[in-house]
Design brief:
One of its GO terms (molecular function) is hydrolase activity. Keywords: Hydrolase. InterPro entries: AB_hydrolase_fold. This is Alpha/beta fold hydrolase. By secondary structure, the chain is α/β, with parallel strands linked by helices. The protein has two domains: about 5-90 and about 155-220, Rossmann fold (3-Layer(aba) Sandwich); about 100-150, no CATH class. The chain contains eleven helices and six strands. It has helices at about 15-30, 40-55, 65-75, 100-115, 115-120, 125-135, 140-150, 155-160, 180-190, 200-205, 210-220, and strands at about 5-10, 35, 60-65, 80-85, 165-170, 195-200. A six-stranded parallel sheet has the order 2-1-3-4-5-6, with helices on both faces. Strand 3, helix 3 (about 65-75) and strand 4 (about 80-85) form a beta-alpha-beta unit. The longest helix has 16 residues, at about 100-115. The chain is globular, with a radius of gyration of 16 Å. The termini are close together.
């Protein structure tokens, strides 16, 4: 492994606070250091990865949209990437009709017409609390950020097949918005990849459950021949 730094990006309208709550502890215990950029939106995510590279290959990744952006960056710049941590991939290729894209577009419309609280009606438990914390941080940019995410492509399966770095994928088994089948297809397409799972309920009780799953998958992939 050429770098102990792991640069991780948040999901749609999420933030670096959530990323740190999920990954900082598990990564530190394993001897890695987390870099969680305070970036907002796809362009800023790519810029954050470019800035973090600095001439030395780094491990990159993220949650949902953040994972899509990081994987795209790794596909475009294999010489810059020492590995990838993919958490909750929501689609591959164009977003066309993916549950997460449809839900995000619908949320953007409600945010514009009725506000954040109305858009989050029925979103309860830890996830609702997390979104109510993070979404206001986007201010007037929230609806645009949601729409941008819903229209952003992730790598195709063919493009993922060109990744040479080890890739760890973590998925929820109980979330139709981030289908387990998508994560399985990513792992099947990538030459050196491993998959670990957890659940929405488990992350509600312990945020680091998701981080531990992603890190364990990454370490499994790193141990495969050729890594």
């Amino acid at each position: 492994m050429s770098s102990s730094r792991v640069v991780l990006l948040p999901g749609t309208a999420s933030d670096e606070v959530f990323v740190a709550s999920v990954f900082a502890g598990p990564l530190d215990e394993a001897g890695f250091s987390l870099v969680a950029p305070p970036s907002r939106g796809v362009r800023e995510h790519f810029e954050a990865l470019d800035a973090a590279w600095g001439g030395t290959p780094v491990v990159v990744g993220g949650v949902s949209l953040g994972a899509h952006v990081a994987a795209t960056w790794a596909v475009r710049h294999p010489e810059r990437c020492a590995g990838v941590l993919v958490t909750l991939p929501a689609w591959n290729g164009p977003a066309d009709g993916a549950p997460a894209a449809l839900a995000t577009s619908a949320s953007a419309s409600v945010v514009e017409s009725a506000g954040v609280e109305t858009a989050l009606t029925g979103v309860d438990g830890w996830l609702g609390a997390e979104l109510r914390r993070a979404w206001p941080r986007y201010g007037s940019r929230l609806a645009a950020a949601l729409r941008e995410a819903a229209g952003t492509a992730s790598p195709t399966l063919a493009e993922l097949g060109g990744l040479t770095a080890p890739v760890g994928v973590a998925a929820w088994t109980d979330d139709p918005v981030h289908p387990f089948e998508v994560a399985r297809k990513w792992v099947e397409a990538i030459p050196r990849a491993a998959l670990r799972t957890t659940t929405v309920a488990a992350v509600g009780a312990d945020r680091e459950a998701l981080g531990r799953a992603a890190l364990a998958a990454f370490l499994d992939a790193s141990a495969q021949p050729g890594c």
